[in-house]
User: Fold this.
Amino acid sequence: MTVTSFSNVPTVPVKNLNGSSPVHPALAGITGILMSAAALPVCLTRPPKLVLHPPPVSKSDVKPVPGFGHCCRKTTKKQARKGKTPEDVVKKYLQKVKSPPEEDCTICMEPLGGPSGYKGPGVGPVSRAESVGRLAQCGHQYHFQCLVAMYNNGNKDGSLQCPTCKTIYGVKTGNQPAGKMEYHVIPHSLPGHPDCKSIRIIYNIPPGLQGPEHPNAGKPFTARGFPRHCYLPDSERGRKVLRLLLVAWDRRLIFSVGTSSTTGESDTVIWNEVHHKTEFGSNLTGHGFPDPGHLDNVLEELRAQGITEEDGLMEK
Assistant:
């Protein structure tokens, strides 16, 4: 049998050619036999390696991000709640509806012309004139009591999000625990961005006790994998994304406390629907570069959290 190497032959990535892992190096020979039996030339290669971190960087090579007068941001206590009562908050965003349409409330799935299907605590009686409201910006209509119940089950931060179209009323904030966000430029380029250096973001959140805004108040939460290193190209668009990530950090929207979709662990710090690139020099996990659509995707995810480019203009 002859194992041939041609530049125009599709490669067959075979691990363990040096026998350094549990799979026997004879796998390479078996692959060659199978390919040769089909009269196909074989070019055995090693698979690409996972590169999570850049080469070592000295402190003198770490520079501030151009246009930023700071390199660190902390979050501490939960932001103050806005609005005197949940009813006050909801009313602020509603218009009265004199004649409810003949359709169901998409929260309780009961007709809008009848009473709310919500029977839980924390919601008082309302007059018939106030039983249905229309959200002022998007126009979707719900039972007033259903909206109050939905607000009570959320972060109770003075904002409201339409459950149908996700339009955000007010300033949405999250339940991210206290921590630290650092950011600076390192003298290495990301794959797909050869013409610029890289922005490195370092998130650090310690374990602690859950507060009233978390799923299980008073219970400890874990914080696995911190500090977490993330990367952006040091380009004009990369810096725009960084500014909006700073807004998201201040609003406690980067992380949350919940159940990990990776490990299944509950009461732990998890990402909160804003994707980050944690793989510096490869893209084997899908969390690396090159990825031409990454920055646009992050801007869209931030927009879904109520953070727009106008918010970035206010970030200095």
